[in-house]
Amino acid sequence: MLLQQLVNGLTLGAVYTLVALSFSLVMGILSVLNIAIGELFMLGGYLGFAVIARELPLPLAMAVAMIGACAVSVVIQKIAYEPLRDAPLITPMLSTLGFSIILQNIVTNVWGSDPLQLPSEMFDADFMVGPVRIGVMQIVVIGVTVALVGAVAYLVQRTPAGRALRAIAENRDVARLLGVSVSKTTFLAFAISGLLAGAAGVLISLHYAAITPYIGVDIGLKAIAVMVIGGATRVWGALLAGPLIGIAEVLTIAYGGSQIRDLVVYGLMILILLLRPQGLLGGARSDVGQRV
């Protein structure tokens, strides 16, 4: 049924939104593509799984995953970005790629390469809204996403730290002259990015009831597609593009088969970029500096 697939697509799109927002915070503010975010997302999923497998409460799993991914993100910032921030943009990007491979190998050695399954009884609770079956875990995924996006929106738009982020995004040199600490602001961007990626990792575990060491590559690439479709320099473009990609993928699987889902998703990305190269929410080329 179409309505059921739309609900499923919104759930998946919520996860894509969080991961894409994690990419966009660093890309939009610092103009750096942190490739390791996909593996931070995967690491968050495993940390959350480790807590849930011990029958501890879900909020604790979220907290452990977010703090763990945030801590690793800060390490990446200190080692892979900070010493290289004045180098050509490709240099820190390749450095984060190296970190992503390291993280994937660490997780594979700790938890193994086989998929880990969450307890099936966690996903038994659901209810009907008319003809649509909604699982409690779907509500958790969407509800947590809305709460986190709202918190990030408040921080970026209403706090001094958020004003510093927006100032760096607008013009780093001018912001520095006005007294904004570039190093502290960079630290904040990476920290928030890690928190969001860690939370998304737990949510995708709840969505699929499983986690593998390679999910970061697949979801990471989809999240980059979401970021590009929404507007690579527009942090909030993910709010529009995430549900769009999630619904497109679920509908493709339901009515066309899973073998063509990537064709549809990335084909949609190419189509949108051909029609609107700056993305759905991107401005004109002269507006490229206004990222937040």
Summarize the structure.
With 292 residues, this protein is mainly alpha-helical. The chain has helices spanning 2-30, 37-52, 58-81, 90-111, 136-158, 160-170, 172-177, 182-208, 215-230, 237-255, 261-275, and strands at residues 116-117, 126-129, 132-135, 210-211. 47% of the residues are buried.
Spatial separation of the terminal alpha carbons: 38 Å
Global morphology: globular
Strands ordered across the widest β-sheet = 1-4
Kindly report the oligomeric state of this protein.
single chain
Give me the count of strands.
4
Order of SSEs: HHHHEEEHHHHEHHH
Tell me the count of domains: 1
Mean pLDDT: 85
What percent of residues adopt helix (DSSP H or I)? Answer: over 70%
Count of DSSP-assigned helices: 11
> What's the story with the biggest beta sheet?
2 strands, antiparallel
Radius of gyration (CA) equals 19 Å
Instruction: Identify the CATH architecture.
Output: Orthogonal Bundle
Identify the CATH class: Mainly Alpha
Class from helix and strand fractions = mainly alpha
CATH topology: ABC transporter involved in vitamin B12 uptake, BtuC
Strand content: under 5%
Unreliable stretches: 285-290
